[in-house]
Amino acid sequence: MIETVWPYLALMPLAAGVFPSLEKRFQWRVFHVLPPIVWTYLFVTALAVAGVWTATPEIQGAQRALTGQLLPALLFLLMVTCDLRAILAVGPRVLAVFVCAMFSILVAIVLTYLLFRSLLPAEGWKMLAALSATWTGGSANLVAVKQVIGLSESALPAVLLADALCYSVWVLVLFSTGALAPVFNRWTRADQNGREYPQLAPVASAGPADAGNVLLWLGLAMLVGLGAGRIAAMMPTSTMLTQTSWTVLFSTVAGLVVARTPLARIPGPASTGAALLALLVAVLASQSNFRGLASAPLFILCAFVTMLLHIGLLAMLARMFRFDMFLCGISSLAQIGGVASAPVLAATYSPVLVPIAILLAMLGLILGTGMGLFMASVLSALAPAGAA
């Protein structure tokens, strides 16, 4: 059992690299069903649940540090390969998908409460309102709504556990179903020729990357991430605009600026970003913890029912408005997963979609508290007498 930080740090890049290496070396068919990043997520999650390492303060600190440093560096590298002008050209349709995803989440929560309100405790409506805040925004929105509506501390763990479990399952599903996009798009009658975002294309580099290029981009990305964090620490914060949000914003802007300079033509940002992406997924999976599952089975069931209703409603809206699968998946995870995971999913679909994921995640963070308070008013009105 690993209890110190260096064995843990050695294991993460090893776990992140094994499946991409196997795919490149052997081209096994299994990787056409589940891509290497999914196998990495499953493998590291299994190691975490099996207790290969103990979540000591030292290891938890390393996990926080890795996530905090890798995310802005990764986003910078991904932005370098993107064309902002092309992304701005698809704004209205992206916003429509985002609104439909949010609408489906809120309607699903109302339907779930109507199904289970006789079984839920008196605070059930508050718990679902808090869940709606984090599923349309993020954890900061959940905390804000909790404080406003007076959700008790004893009810909060069930909400957090349900959120974590549903999020983990949904991330795995979205990572695994990218190959089904053509089938889904035929069903929704979405554009099969890529005209949904016709100009989105990576910035061309001057040739293949070598070791020097990779080290150059890695060092530059880490410096940009550190600089973004330093500037973010000086910015005003709120429940909707946290220091992490500022860091993500600054590193994203830095990457988009560099993308319009000759520096972007130096080989390496794409391959370096792919390596950081795999490592970040491994670190996120290493924090999986399903202890306490038996303490809140009913609310966990409610959360999964909400998730299934959300998926069904969003699929119907996608068919109605001819949305493609990639935008639907990114819009959903931008709200349920937030800025830490939506860009990761977008990068597995196509790096050029990463800015869209960041935009939608930031928009969800802005709207999440308001949506949670709105749902609190709706659910309290539907609550049985004495529960409101």
Automatic annotation (TrEMBL):
<feature type="transmembrane region" description="Helical">
    <location>
        <begin position="214"/>
        <end position="234"/>
    </location>
</feature>
<feature type="transmembrane region" description="Helical">
    <location>
        <begin position="298"/>
        <end position="318"/>
    </location>
</feature>
<feature type="transmembrane region" description="Helical">
    <location>
        <begin position="266"/>
        <end position="286"/>
    </location>
</feature>
<keyword id="KW-0472">Membrane</keyword>
<keyword id="KW-0812">Transmembrane</keyword>
<feature type="transmembrane region" description="Helical">
    <location>
        <begin position="240"/>
        <end position="259"/>
    </location>
</feature>
<dbReference type="InterPro" id="IPR008537">
    <property type="entry name" value="DUF819"/>
</dbReference>
<feature type="transmembrane region" description="Helical">
    <location>
        <begin position="155"/>
        <end position="181"/>
    </location>
</feature>
<keyword id="KW-1133">Transmembrane helix</keyword>
<feature type="transmembrane region" description="Helical">
    <location>
        <begin position="325"/>
        <end position="346"/>
    </location>
</feature>
<feature type="transmembrane region" description="Helical">
    <location>
        <begin position="36"/>
        <end position="56"/>
    </location>
</feature>
<feature type="transmembrane region" description="Helical">
    <location>
        <begin position="68"/>
        <end position="88"/>
    </location>
</feature>
<feature type="transmembrane region" description="Helical">
    <location>
        <begin position="94"/>
        <end position="116"/>
    </location>
</feature>
<feature type="transmembrane region" description="Helical">
    <location>
        <begin position="352"/>
        <end position="382"/>
    </location>
</feature>
<dbReference type="Pfam" id="PF05684">
    <property type="entry name" value="DUF819"/>
</dbReference>
<protein>
    <submittedName>
        <fullName>DUF819 family protein</fullName>
    </submittedName>
</protein>
